[in-house]
Amino acid sequence: MSFNGKFELQSQENFEPFMKALCLSDELIEKGKDVKSISEIVQNGKKFKVTVTTGSKVLTNEFTIGEEAELETPTGEKVKAVVQMEGDNKLVTNLGKIKSVTEIKGDIVTNTLTVGDISYTRISKRI
């Protein structure tokens, strides 16, 4: 299954508890909780470029499945990580203390970020 496309955030669960677990300030959490975001995924074989635009912040990560890459976390920290593909529709990696699982089913992308026992889920729809 191809991940290619643009996706708009439709809903999110546990944003505030997750961001608090990452030690973000209440001010930043308040600013970010209602901001919509657009994710663009470009897949070329095992190579991916993921760009997430949230308000004025743009986060871009490029990686090749199974190879170490420097990736930026939601807090702006850069970490070395290896992204693995499970089946043909799921990307899994560990961004430092954050586990990230991104799954595509039809026109829906679900991204679950977990730190400790707190999971933050973002559901986006293809636009």
TrEMBL record:
Residues 5-22 form the Cytosolic fatty-acid binding proteins domain. GO terms for cellular component: cytosol; nucleoplasm. Gene3D superfamilies: 2.40.128.20. It is found in: Cytoplasm. The keyword Transport applies. Keywords: Cytoplasm, Lipid-binding, Transport. GO terms for biological process: cellular response to hydrogen peroxide; cellular response to hypoxia; fatty acid transport. SUPFAM superfamilies: Lipocalins. GO terms for molecular function: antioxidant activity; chromatin binding; fatty acid binding. Coiled coil: none annotated. Forms a beta-barrel structure that accommodates hydrophobic ligands in its interior. Belongs to the calycin superfamily. Fatty-acid binding protein (FABP) family. Binds free fatty acids and their coenzyme A derivatives, bilirubin, and some other small molecules in the cytoplasm. Involved in intracellular lipid transport. This is Fatty acid-binding protein, liver. It comes from Gopherus evgoodei.
